[in-house]
Every structure is written in structure tokens, then in C-alpha cells.
Amino acid sequence: MALDLSALIPGRNPPLVGVDVSATSVKLVELSTSPRGGRRLERYAIEPLPRGAVVDGGIDKVDIVAEALRRAWRKAGCRTKNVAMALPASAVITKRILLPANLSEEELEIQVESEANQYIPFSLDEVSLDFCVIGPSPQNKDEVEVLLAASRKERVEDRIAVAQAAGLKPAIMDIETYAARSALDNVRVQLPNKGDGLVLALFYIGANTLSISVTLNDQVVYERDQSFGGNQLTQDIARAYGLSFEEAETKKRTGDLPDGWQKDFLEPFTESCALEVTRSLQFFFTSTPYSRVDQIMLAGGCATLPGLVDAVVNRTQVPTSVITPFKGMDVSPNVRDRQLQLDAPMLMVACGLAMRRFAE
User: Which residues make Cβ contacts (< 8 Å) with residue 108, sequence separation at least 6?
Assistant: First the structure.
């Protein structure tokens, strides 16, 4: 499920471009309907950001991020100006509540605002608030389950400002974890029996955070974030070879480093990463009724590091693969397949946002 925190944002109009602003880059994805009736990756782009432009999910330098988005939009060859963006989960308060099923839409809005006061530690004047009716309550047919979401207005406004400064039109504001989950759902239905009955663990390993999301069928049964990411490896490389952080990041991705860097830095990092994955699974097993994971999927900028899949398999003894959110989709001839294989694991959120154009 995805949410629109849309009090300040115009209505949605497809086609749509998904834009993911992370600590290290701006990522852009545009999908379309293929001639066969499925989905097709039309274009994408990734534009790096300097350190300090985005800190803890907040945009500190709107002009720099906007310029990076403008470059990505041009690089991809987009014409569509409507964009879907997302807030980090840490910037959004979500809560499931039960309300009477017979309320009109206006009555529902009033009731949601009343309930929100109990869960939001800010004045409602300071937040962008939205809600989504999930469906009838399993326990009481006279009630409906409603998902409430709220974020400080400045967090929403920063992303709106970035899009507008880049000459684009913000149409949807989502939540990063929900967007990634939409992309995961697309992957899950490509599995045998559409993944029914399988406990799937998605690990998104970004610059600063390792996130785990465990799903069974189409339900999330566990989520957790911890402080660990690829910036640790980049900093080690920068210190060892006297490089700037940006230079080290570029050389890490291309492998353009002196002989011995893999043994000295890459292998220890992949082992540490595999250890963090194992610890996350242990937390999952001890804090839920579940005692197994059927498949591990790796995403994020670190997912394609050489040796990481083998290291995770060796430690967890669970089948592990690098995920591509475009599995089962057609790909435009304008997209370079080899580069896409390297970039796809970083595009989970941007892909999930681009999929909003197909939402009912």
C-alpha cells in the first residue's frame, strides 16, 4: 500500500516519473505500458550527490539536490514532468486505527483528525496528514481499518521545493518503505506460485542504513533498521589512499583501485555485512513467532559488491540473490542492459514510485 501525503500537492496525473532522493544520489525511473500489456522500463538515471546535501533523510541543500535532479531528468531523456517522491520512514508517523464503517468521507476526515491528535506529538498545523482505508476490520464488520500517516510539513515542503526548482511537478508524496514494498511485490509475483507461503527477507543496504523487511504472502511481518552501510567501506578507502570521499565512492564502484584493495577492504566489509544480515535474522527469529526464512533478497548500493552473496549464504545457509525490481518487465532499447544489471538493486524505491502511475 502507498500513501499520498498530499495536503500541499496537486492531484496525480499519469504518466509519472519516480524520484528517489537518498544520501548519496538522486535516482529517477520512468515506466510505461508495454505493447504486450505489461510494464516496461522506459528510462532511468542516477546522479550522485555530494556529502552533506542530504543528511538523515532531510534535504540540507535544496539547490544542489535540485540541480542533480535536473541533470538526471535530462540524462534520462524524460519529457514527463509529473514526479512521485518519497519521505524516509523515519520522517513519517504511521498508525492503524479502527473507525465506524458507516461514516461519510467528510465524517471520516473529521474523525481521522480527531484520532491523529492522540498519536502525533506536534500540532496538526505543523504536519501534512493523510489516511487510507485498508478495508473492513477482521474482528468487527461494523468497523473499517484505516492507516493514518503524518509528517512534519517542512519535510514534505523540502522535497516539493527540490522538484519545483528542477522544473518538475510533484504529484505524489509516498513513504520510501512503502514504495520499495511495491517494487518487491512485483518481484514476488514472478516467483513460483507467486511466492505464496514463502517467508521472504529483503535487505536494503544503503549508504548509512541496513533495512530488513520480511514478508509472508503480501503481508509485512517484520521491519527493522540498523546503522550500517556502504559509507564505511568508502571512508576506509578514502583514508587508505588519500582520496576525497567522492573520489573513493567512484573508484569503489568501478574497482579502479590499487591491487590488494579487495583483500584489505572489500572482503572484510562483505564479511561484516554478512554478519549484520545474520544478526538481523536472529532479531527477527527471537522477536516473532517465525523460525525460518526461505529466501534472502539483497538490494541497495552494496548489493552488487563482489562476494557479498556468497558471504551471506555461508553465514545464513539461506538461498540469497540480488534483486532487480524490473523482473518480468520489458526494457526499452534505450536502456543499456549491462549497466542496468549493476544499477537495478539501487532503484527499488524509484521503481516503486514510478509504479504509482498504474495504481487504481
Answer: 99, 131, 133, 146
